[in-house]
Amino acid sequence: MMERRRMDVALLVLFLVQLTTALEVPLDLLEGLPQPPTITHQSPKDYIIDPRENIIIHCEAKGKPHPSFSWTRNGTHFDIDEDPNVTMKPHSGTMVVDISRAKAEHYESVYQCTSRNKHGTAVSNNIVVQQSRSPLWSKEKLKAMVVQEGVSMVLPCRPPAGLPPPIIFWMDNNFQKLPQSSRVSQSLNGDLYFSNVLREDSRNDYICYARFPYTQTIQQKQPISVKVLNMDAINDTMAAFYNETDLFSEEPADERKPTFLIPSGPSSSKMVLRGQVLEMECIAEGLPTPEVSWIKVSGDLPAKRTFFLHYQKTLRIVNVSESDAGDYRCTARNRLGSVHHTIKVNVKAAPYWISGAPRNLVLAPGESGVLTCRASGTPKPLVTWAMNGIPIENSPKDLSRKVEDDTIIFTDVQTGSSAVFQCNVSNDYGYLLSNAFVNVLSETPRVLTPSNKVYQVIKNHPALIDCASFGSPIPKITWFKDSRASTLDGDPYIVHDNGTLEIHVAQARNSGKYTCVARNTLGNYENHVYLEVKEPTRILKQPEYKVVQRGRSVVFECKVKHDPSLIPTMTWLKDDGELPDDERLIVDSDSLAISDVTENDAGVYTCIMNTTLDHDSASAELTVVEATPTPAVVYERPDPPTDLELTDQKKRSVQLTWTPGDEHNSPIQKFLIQFEDSLHHRGHWHNLTEVPGSKTTAHLKLSPYMHYTFRVLALNAVNLSRPSFPSRMFKTEPAAPDENPTGVQGLGTEHDNLVISWKPLTGLQSNGPGLHYRVMWRQKLVDSDWTTVTVANNSKFVVSGTPTFVPYELRVQAVNEQGAAAEPQTAIGFSGEDLPVAAPENVQAMLLNSTLAKVHWEPVPARSIRGHLKGYRVYYWRDRSLHKHNPHHAEKQILTFSGNHTHGMLPGLHPFSLYSFNVRLYNGKGEGPPSPTQQFETPEGVPGPPTSLLVTNPNLDSLTLEWSPPHDRNGHITGYTLKYQPVNDSNELGPLEELALPANETSVTVFSLKYSTRYKFYLNAITVSGAGPAISQEAVTIMDEGNTQTPHPIAPSPPRRPPHKAQPASPFKNISSSFVEDGTLISWEYWGPEKNVYVEYIVKNSEGEEEWQKELVNGSQNVTLKGLKGGLSYRVRLVAQGHHDQPLHHSEELVVSVPAVASRQVDIATQGWFIGLMCAIALLILILLIICFIQRNKGGKYPVKEKEDAHTDPEFQPMKDDDCTFGEYSDNEDHKPLKGSRTPSNGTVKRDDSDDSLVDYGDGGDGQFNEDGSFIGQYSGKSASRETAEGHESSEAPSPINAMNSLNSFV
Predict the structure, then answer these.
(1) Maximum separation of any 2 CA atoms in the chain, in Å
(2) pLDDT value at position 1151?
């Protein structure tokens, strides 16, 4: 019984579908018809937004009347009016969230749009709004990976989870992609796999990068260091001690058959959704490197949708379908064997339409129809219906409506039952939501095809004549031709269901007028169209094959026949491409001519004749051969033409004929015709026109009121001929001007005038005597009459007494004694501008960071601009620093923003400062009044360098440092960082030490230093925003004099703070001196505004005639005086010089006594002569050892020697000086590794560390790249921890014992 009922329903649905198919009509074409809402555009279901931009959630709909819109958020009504950050676009449901005043994450929710009018309600999908995320890499300390050559290795990436997920790639510290191969490849999760490692894999800059596509941010992981140990390096070390005897095998790790690194086990499974991309990977390790292959166990791989990536390790199948389910097997194979892994793929499917989404339905009262929601999926989806956004089971009951699973059946519908139905199809993997309306209408027929439309078709081709109609009930279409004797039904006519009339093979007799009639029970409608059957386009004479000598000419003909009512277009091609852009190729209406043929002209030439309806083409080949040698020819320019004659004389034209002169073996290319006007420009010849060299006649168009005399010149390949003798004079009669002046414009030079100007006509354009101009103007947008004046011998006119900046309509007409030119065109001009009278309002400043602010304002109303808006200017100045120690500043700066801007950026601000600003509008006249001055405070930034850094009290193992705070504090100083390191004679830097100091300290004593050693110190200040740039200084500890001191930790010296007192009149204070290696260092603090500062010094107790010596400072607050002589005392002072009319500012004088002998104690072990002496001694010892060895071996093998050989101690025996055997092994300074090399305790040699990664500077995990590619994060020096860790690995030279111990650790 149930099956019978389902069969009946299916038959009824099929019958109703056939009845209602023709009602699928685009209602957009019909004006005035009522229509329920239809959503035309909406945001995607999963909507990922950029947190830096406003959120725009789209919802557009149409309907009659135009629908209204509302939104839900997380299933409840979202009142947009109550949220000041949310607006809705006019006449639209699109919602805009302004994130400038709110955070984007506050609006991460599920939204749904509802569109309704009185005929129904449509709803959008659930739009899940999430902001894109690019989280920072978690900080971690990575240990170096040490592996033996030949084994497998995996470098983990583990990027932070972003939205959407990041794109992973590996690069080195030079931003070069790491090479990948069948041995080394990246997995789908971003890890880097090595099937086996080689020696060249050793490097310290394996860096994993993650690129987040929405924010265009790139982050990098800390570099991973890999060291590959190999037996060759150990054998090379041992050979130096044991006569090159191999103690170990040179083979790396044993060869082995493949095993899979991923996936694990013999089998695994994977689920993928229909339509998505299936990616499976198999990465194997082994030696030699395995090769990976794939098969589908249960069938063949889909050839067009299958791709192999990452050197066959990844199998990708795109656009997955249910047929792709099954078992896939990957095989890894090398010469030692193979291994397999089977992956079972299950294909699921989110719901998808079988025959498309439900379609809108238009029914007449009393008619029946169906809405079908036919979809499929795996697992089978559930279908639910709603009407006007309400579940259909909760909607009002309607006997004309019946729901049968995925179908709604409508029978005997009535007026007023229009509604929008929602079909929701869902399963575990997704959903489909579709709106379809049922519109109940009673409408007389209408034909939508334009009336009197002309259809054109080529003879013997099919013809299709449209009759698109609409009506409710469905109209019936009948066709008639010409006299309407009978309906067109049957051969050769076919009437389609949509009303289109088809003629299979159109003939000339089918041309004529056609009438389609649309008829239903409410009336009928006629529409007339026309059919024209055209003759086909045919090439009558095709181009022929040509063989031409180089340098000759050739012509291809292409004669065509076409319908005379169609406009033809001839196109030529060469070798199926465009013709070369060469003046030697001349295209005529039915031919192609090529002159001076070259080898490049050879090829196939095709002529194509196109019309608006059809085309025809034909081709021919050109072969170029060498020209036959000919005797030398003398080429000269042609003789001038003769026998000039004027015929066919008219008011404005005449025909000129002539006889060409001798060509002199070079064909005439063209003739140049010139004229002289003896009435206006006697004695001046002007070019009139050119004609081809094959013609001897020219029809000349002339101007009125001219006295013409003509002459002709001939041109060939050599040059122009001499001019011909002039023709007789031909006079033209005067006439009214043919044209009016151009360049008419109006602008004011004062606020109450209008200057009308134009480009005057030339004498040739005047066409007669008495030329003058009729100037007309009237105010635009005001109903007023034209004001007219006459102007002669001038090209401008000034109108006075005009209102300020008002548009005017302008006309300038040329007039002479014969009459006026045609009515002139109207130009628009403006009277004079005046200064703006209003300032921008609602001016606000928004701080973006400590050095950048954004200023907003509202535009000035147009009536207050009083001129052409040029732009806005922002005046801003720094009132003062927010720090009490910094002086005041008041230099105004101006930024101009052209055009109608409403905001601008203020760059280059000083941190931790108070700024004032105002905004002014400017037009062509000047600036308007300023807006009220406002203020803003910039946040703290990083400080500048300390003002000075002095090193005092040098002792055997300590130095005292004194400094002054930074001049530009840019905030509250929270502390200082002091770094220092030794410097040797070769200017090489030693290990770096670091010390954090409190903010209230201005001096510190550094203990535990080496005696007689030069140190370099770096000091920088710190605020809450970070550390600023450092100031550096060098100093030397004194030489060891036999005294020893107990090492003591670094202790700050008591702070030296000046007593609190009033600011002195001099801008200088804290002036001090110290002695450095290359002179005397003078330091000070300066608080004055002058930029020109210098140091003066003079010998103390000098005679009066001596002058002060001057040393420029260049903006710093310390200087090294190198010209002071030892044993003398000097008076030193600082001078600040302002403008020429201001007095000089002098500091208090400082007396500096320079030591008589500035000796610097150095370590003898670092002197060149000492190193050379030691090398000579070592060479002498080596020669003695060689002689001893030779003498010992001369006597052969003695019994004592045999006994020694038989009882050799397994340990290495010391060599004594008296018997040339090994003594104690010394590991002193002479055996240290070479400079720049580092030798770990495992016996391997590290690669040169000069290729530093960017991650070596600061915390690599915080490194990011912005959209413009700049690096985010502080670029600082290498951390002391890194230097210390590497520097303490080993200070010993490679020894045989160490090499053996290292090897034993791996056996």
Answers:
(1) 144
(2) 87
